[in-house]
Write a structure and sequence with these properties.
alpha/beta, 8 helices, binds NADP nicotinamide-adenine-dinucleotide phosphate
């Protein structure tokens, strides 16, 4: 049975929880990772915790390799890696701090890259290929400039990793779920998002989960090195050029 490791899973309404549920339905054994101290600070009052199998602060440089090891101890060789964890504590040009920049890059960029590395090392030893899906976002992220910088880095990491790992049969793709109702949208924001979206509603976690499911399926085997947006046309309607 294929085994997927999914990060960022502890919140019931988060995208990663929907991905984990979807992949279980697809027949994956799913190992989930979270870091609930972040939720307590950032999402208090808007959600419940679904919990996760493993808890690691992925801003710790040693955590990614330890997480991979712990996931394999639990479920056997991980064949698919889905990275949805993120730090987004806001801050624009005039109020971002050095500490906040470092934290966004440590968790979102270094945490992603070291997990990709640990996964690729294991898949290379197994000589069996694998699948990686990284969660990105769309520009401009006004007022969340360090988060935006980290998501830009994830996009380029996707291209570099896809071209290096393709020879090993490992695909690497990024998903931009667009504005997605994971609990952060007030009714007004959700209404506005729906109005700006050609398909007439805001994104839901299940939309992103369906795309991840496809990318990990046999039918998704030849998709590599892509940033794929699933936003009902929100970005293109706002004038962003598809990349
Ligand atoms: N929602 C949107 O509108 C939207 C739009 C564009 C892109 N995205 C991207 O889609 C992905 C999922 O979005 P979401 O809204 O569902 O995310 P989210 O719930 O805000 O964040 C994901 C989770 O990452 C985990 N996390 C935070 N710091 C961590 C750390 N130091 N170590 C390990 N895990 C940590 C948190 O805890 P737990 O793991 O304990 O839950 C958090 O709940 C993210 O990568 C986000 O950037 C979302």
């Amino acid at each position: 049975m294929p085994v997927a490791l999914v990060t960022g899973v502890s919140r019931t309404r988060g995208i990663a929880a929907a991905v984990a549920e979807r992949l279980r339905g697809d027949g994956f054994t799913v190992v989930t990772a979270g870091w609930t101290p972040y939720d307590t600070e950032q999402h208090a009052g808007i959600d419940e915790q679904v919990g996760s199998d493993l808890q690691y602060d992925l801003g710790d440089p040693g955590a990614p390799a330890e997480l991979l090891r712990a996931a394999e101890d639990r479920a056997g060789p991980v064949t698919a890696l889905v990275l949805a964890h993120t730090v987004d504590t806001g801050g624009g040009v005039f109020d971002i701090t050095a500490a906040s920049i470092d934290r966004h890059l440590a968790v979102n960029v270094r945490g992603f890259l070291l997990l990709v590395q640990a996964f690729a090392q294991r898949r290379r030893e197994a000589e069996e290929g694998g699948r990686i899906v990284l969660f990105s976002s769309g520009p401009p992220q006004t007022g969340s400039i360090a988060y935006g910088a980290s998501k830009g880095a994830i996009e380029w990491m996707t291209y570099a990793a896809a071209t290096e790992l393709g020879r090993l049969g490992i695909t690497v793709n990024a998903v931009n779920p667009g504005p997605n109702q994971t609990g952060w949208m007030s009714p007004e924001i959700e209404r506005e998002a729906a109005e700006r979206t050609p398909l007439g509603r805001a994104g839901q976690p299940r939309d992103a989960a369906a795309l991840v499911s496809f990318l990990l399926s046999d039918d998704g085997a030849f998709i590599n090195g892509q940033l794929i947006t699933s936003d009902g046309g929100h970005g293109i309607a706002a004038g962003s050029w598809p990349r």
